[in-house]
């Protein structure tokens, strides 16, 4: 894969780089790299067709890329920013979750209504788990016990026992769940529902909903409020929720579940990722083709960076 701006050697040789945010551009088949210190675009990398979900290995040596239209999960060596091989993924991989063991990758196959489990070291499929219609969101619990998949059409969270790769329970949530996120202590799960316009808080022990958060933005029609990406601060203070075509990120008190503020970002905000110290939050804005940078202390957007066409996913390397 060719580099379009700076050689990878130059990129990682500079001591000034505080971290690098990788952004997947689904219409350009590229990744845009952003220096999280200077907040400047530093490189563009060509990858497979329609990259969407991206995630780092736990040691940050590799970046896994859902190249949806290539029907592959690509593995990028972060030291060289080159694709080194593909993993078997099933058809149309969209999102995935990496188990804390650092080698079991759980991949949502939207067209096949299955979750494919791949051993990233052996590059083998170790299980395929039948779930609901149009699986998308994936998350692994901090203790490694549970993996959850969301099915957009069935409107459920599917609970997979990671010890035996078996589907053991389901939780019905609001319409078209897109993303699921565990709290740092692993006691609760936040599940966004795009069409329902809500986020459900689910107790992990009982697997039942304990709270439903609704959103109301002055001057924005409720049909445009479509929650997708969710990120929780490690200190338990805030939850940030991307609200899709409402073009705002909601700031939620993670303890009381009160919506504190709405931050205006780019058009069709989709996914979110923190900088290393969580002082900054990066948002992918698909329709406007840019990334907004939010100061999480001041709760203000401080910069907008132009990236590729239809940025989808974002992940940050220290």
Strand content: over 45%
Q: How many distinct beta strands? A: 28
What's the helix-strand series?
Answer: HEEEEEEEEEEEEEEEEEEEEEEEEEEEE
**How are the strands of the biggest sheet laid out side by side?**
3-2-1-28
Structural class: mainly beta
H/I helix tally? 1
The separation of the N and C termini measures 23 Å
Radius of gyration: 18 Å
Low-pLDDT residue intervals, each spanning 5 or more residues: 1-17
How would a textbook summarize the main sheet?
4 strands, antiparallel
Q: Specify the overall morphology.
A: globular
Q: Could you explain how this protein is built, in words?
A:
This protein has 318 residues and is mostly beta strands. It has 1 helix and 28 strands. The strands form 7 sheets. A 4-stranded antiparallel sheet has the order 3-2-1-28, with no helix packed on it. It has a 4-stranded antiparallel sheet with strand order 4-5-6-7, with no helix packed on it. It has a 4-stranded antiparallel sheet with strand order 8-9-10-11, with no helix packed on it. It is globular, with a radius of gyration of 18 Å. The chain starts with 7 loop residues before the first helix and ends with a strand. Residues 1-17 have low confidence and may be disordered.
Give a nutshell description of this structure.
Helices cover 2% and strands 53% of the residues. It is mainly β and 318 residues long.
Helices and strands in order, then pairings?
Layout (H helix, E strand, L loop, with lengths): L7 H6 L6 E6 L4 E6 L4 E7 L4 E6 L5 E6 L4 E6 L4 E6 L5 E6 L5 E6 L4 E6 L4 E7 L4 E6 L5 E6 L4 E6 L4 E7 L4 E6 L5 E6 L4 E6 L4 E7 L15 E3 L5 E5 L5 E6 L5 E6 L4 E6 L5 E6 L4 E6 L4 E7 L4 E7 L1
Antiparallel strand pairs: 1-2, 1-28, 2-3, 4-5, 5-6, 6-7, 8-9, 9-10, 10-11, 12-13, 13-14, 14-15, 16-17, 17-18, 18-19, 20-21, 21-22, 22-23, 24-25, 25-26, 26-27
């Amino acid at each position: 894969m060719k580099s379009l701006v700076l050689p990878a050697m130059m990129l990682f040789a500079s001591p000034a780089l505080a971290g690098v945010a990788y952004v997947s551009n689904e219409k350009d088949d590229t990744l845009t790299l952003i220096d999280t210190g200077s907040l400047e675009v530093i490189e563009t990398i060509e990858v497979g067709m329609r990259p969407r979900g991206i995630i780092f290995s736990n040691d940050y040596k590799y970046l896994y890329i859902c190249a949806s239209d290539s029907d592959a999960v690509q593995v990028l060596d972060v030291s060289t920013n080159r694709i080194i091989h593909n993993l078997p993924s099933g058809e149309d991989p969209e999102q995935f979750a990496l188990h804390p063991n650092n080698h079991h990758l759980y991949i949502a196959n939207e067209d096949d209504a299955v979750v494919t489990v791949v051993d990233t070291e052996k590059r083998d499929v170790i299980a395929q788990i039948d779930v609901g219609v149009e699986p998308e969101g994936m998350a692994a619990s901090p203790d490694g016990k549970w993996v959850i998949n969301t099915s957009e059409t069935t409107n459920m969270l599917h609970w997979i026992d990671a010890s035996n790769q078996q589907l053991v329970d389901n939780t019905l949530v609001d319409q078209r769940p897109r993303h699921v996120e565990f709290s740092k202590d692993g006691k609760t799960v936040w599940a966004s529902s795009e069409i329902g316009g809500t986020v459900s808080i689910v107790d992990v022990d009982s697997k039942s909903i304990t709270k439903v958060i609704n959103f109301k933005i002055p001057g924005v029609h409720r049909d445009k409020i479509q929650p997708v990406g969710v990120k929780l601060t490690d200190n338990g203070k805030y939850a940030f929720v991307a609200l899709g075509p409402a073009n705002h990120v909601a700031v939620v008190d993670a303890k009381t579940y009160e919506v504190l503020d709405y931050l205006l970002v780019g058009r069709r905000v989709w996914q979110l990722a923190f900088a290393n110290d969580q002082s900054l939050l990066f948002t992918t804005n698909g329709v406007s083709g840019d990334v907004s940078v939010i100061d999480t202390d001041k709760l203000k957007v401080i910069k907008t960076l132009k990236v590729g066409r239809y940025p989808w996913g974002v992940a940050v390397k220290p």
